[in-house]
Every structure is written in structure tokens, then in C-alpha cells.
Specification:
Shape: elongated
Low-confidence stretches: 67-73
CATH class of the largest domain: Alpha Beta
Strand content: 5-15%
Length: 158
């Protein structure tokens, strides 16, 4: 093959590579612009609006803001897993929002955790979102959830 026959092909390849780089740069800058817009919107929100946004995102995408901490716990076990997932038998009950009947929620929390006094139960409810009880069987977790939701609280079992 003559050197002159190679040159047009190489030029065409170089031209296509240049076009591809331009398209990629435009796409990545558009993504950065979108990210910047979202960040600007969040900066303008109140703390409560951001908390509602986080809750809505957790619900919509079925994720938890605490997921990285939960993922670290199994890794600390030393790699015992053989690839099979075990059925979860213990759950944590999370109080995500108190609702309008705060006093009734405090009473239910005291009934669930009788070792707590009135002040401790109130402090626990005031810290929502927080864990009410950890490592409980499915039936007990669902019972606690039902009792709290009955008085207007929002609860997750994880």
C-alpha cells in the first residue's frame, strides 16, 4: 500500500475521534450543569425541606441514608459468607416522624421500653428519626410499628 493511501484513512479516523471527544465533553458538561442546578436548589431549601427530600428519596429509591454503615458490619465478620444470603430474622424499628400526637407517641414508647422514664422517652421521641428498638423478631417489630402508627407516628422496620 502506498503512503498516500494511508493518510486519508488516518485523517478520517482522527476526525472521528475528535468528534467523539467533543460529544463526550458536551455530555459531561451537561451532567455537571444538572448537578450544579440541583445543588443550588438544595442550598435554597430549609433544613426541614431537605429532611423531607431525603425521606422522599429513601422511599422512592428504596435506599437508606444509613446504608454504608450497615454494609460495613458484614464485612467485619471475616468473610464467612459462602455466597448464600440468609433470611433476616432480626429487625430494627425506626421512628422516622412523630406526627401530631407527640404525647401519645411518648406513651407508646414508654410502653414499648418500660425501662425508660418520661424524660428519656421524650428525649428519644424528640430525636426522630431514631431507632426505637434493635434486633427484634419480625412479629414484635410489626407489632411495635402498628402501635406507633396507630397514634400517628411514621415508622420503618429495617
Amino acid at each position: 500500500m502506498s503512503p498516500s493511501a494511508k493518510e486519508p484513512k488516518e485523517e478520517a479516523v482522527a476526525e472521528k475521534v475528535g468528534e467523539t471527544k467533543e460529544k463526550t465533553t458536551k455530555k459531561s458538561s451537561a451532567k455537571k450543569d444538572n448537578v450544579e442546578k440541583v445543588i443550588e436548589m438544595i442550598e435554597k431549601m430549609t433544613f426541614l425541606e431537605v429532611a423531607d427530600l431525603v425521606s422522599a428519596m429513601e422511599d422512592r429509591f428504596n435506599v437508606s441514608a444509613a446504608a454504608p454503615a450497615m454494609m460495613a458490619a458484614p464485612m467485619a465478620g471475616g468473610g464467612e459468607g459462602g455466597g448464600e444470603a440468609e433470611a433476616k430474622t432480626e429487625f430494627d424499628v425506626h421512628l422516622t416522624a412523630v406526627g401530631d400526637k407527640k404525647i401519645q407517641v411518648i406513651k407508646v414508647v414508654r410502653a414499648i421500653l418500660p425501662q425508660l422514664g418520661l424524660k428519656e422517652a421524650k428525649d428519644l421521641v424528640d430525636k426522630a428519626p431514631t431507632v426505637i428498638k434493635e434486633g427484634v423478631p419480625t412479629e414484635e417489630a410489626n407489632d411495635i410499628k402498628a402501635k406507633l402508627e396507630e397514634v400517628g407516628a411514621q415508622v420503618d422496620v429495617k
